[in-house]
Fold this sequence. Notes:
The chain is mainly beta. It has 2 domains: 19-255, Jelly Rolls, CATH 2.60.120.200; 272-493, Jelly Rolls (Sandwich), CATH 2.60.120. Helix content is 3%, strand content 33%. The chain has 2 helices and 33 strands. The strands form 5 sheets. Strands 19, 20, 22, 27, 28, 29, 30, 31 and 33 form a 9-stranded antiparallel β-sheet that branches. The longest helix is centred in the C-terminal third of the chain and has 7 residues, at 487-493. It starts with 18 loop residues before the first strand and ends with a helix.
Amino acid sequence: MVAVLGANSVSGVYEVSNSLRFNDDDSARLSRTPSSEGNRKTWSYSTWFKRGNLKSSGTMNFISAGAQSGTNGTGIQTNNDTIRIIHDDGTPFFTFQSSQVLRDVSAWYHLLVTCDTTDATASERIKFYLNGNNITSDMSYTNGSAPSQNSNLRINDDEGHNIGARSHHNDNFFDGYMAETHLIDGTVKAPTDFGEFDDNGVWIPKQYTGTYGTNGFFLEFQQTGTSQNSSGIGADTSGNDNHFAVTNLAATDVTEDTCTNNFATLVPTLNMTLSEGNVKAMTSRTSYWDGVHASIGLTSGKWYFETKVSNASGTFRVKSGIVGNPETFTILYNGQGTSADPLDVLSNTYPSYGKGVWLSHWYDQNYDTSSTASAQSSGDILQFALDMDNYKMWIGVNGQFKDNSNNNVSYSDVASGSSATVTIASAAYTGKTFFPDVWLRDDDGSFDNVAEINFGNPSFSISSGNTDGKYGNFEYAPPSGYYALCTKRLAEFG
């Protein structure tokens, strides 16, 4: 699958600066227990989200509420890649679930769920809106039926509330990104309170200007602290000071990847394990190379990205670079194929290691020439400056770019277009789409070769912090004229 730019690749006037990245393997969550009950009959929940791991047979919670010591609760969640609300409170018990699946890991979605059990019409008591559209008619009660009139749900109760996990068990963790998260206590809101359609018919965020009620909150995830206060990741900026405590979330989980500036991530494949919002990769197999490519492909412009070799052991380690035509890109690569090999997509001649440009133990260019480089070690950061206007790429390690003969190349040389590591000279490659990629092989069976790709939204700690002049967060400064792989820059220079 080649992913598109996402649910809203066009930015409106209102800009969302930050999102929070949840990694389900970390049991990451935000938690709060209100000091008193709010309105359990009437409320609205709004959030923007971008999925990470897909779970065709699992559950991940956006928000939930319920006593930690009990079995009862209310949760808004994904289940089998659909979205639903489940209320388990003995009597009543119900599950209200969508029919459509959400499997685009490149897309930002907007979700609004409203509850008003005071409504005399049962079908009006719970409503779901996705990207501004009312999808309630496409949903059904797979368990139970609509909540009875004037019944209480657990949201806005004086019990535990979690963002990113099931409250009454602290499990079913969310994986992916959330941004612009609101809870409105006591009021049913419309989608137009949080978003609007632009001139191209794309649903984009809009600044909310209403009230929040007693237990309502607004999580912007702009604060980089970890405490439960106004300077923490879980800070409530509604004015209510309904701050959330933080569990297994850090400053590196606050990212610029948002619904108004969508950054590239990696697209899941069968044998590659992705985490940290799909920017960290680990293979699950030995004997074969496994590859995974970015969600955004490139045909023009100048782009910069980094890949951190988080851990490398054994003979075979980590490759990263670019690959062409992921329409035929498969999870299997054995290095010994024929002209029919799936990676042989740019010409009819099969080279030794497929068609792409990678850096691992060597520069494996597969176009005209090859040159030897040193094996990469754990902690190394590989650098890639890709000029799709002139079909050149510069490869570097830890702040030093190299030419085709492994000689040092200055940043000014990269900016001027001189001494490229790779020049794609053949006319056969002209007009092709190239995708940043990562390749892993674990020959010793330890499953400990790990790579983290950074398009400006890193999962690893950055010691220095560099932008492309405006966007992104990189360990090393991008060369002049090279940009982070995000929709803002694609609109300007892609």
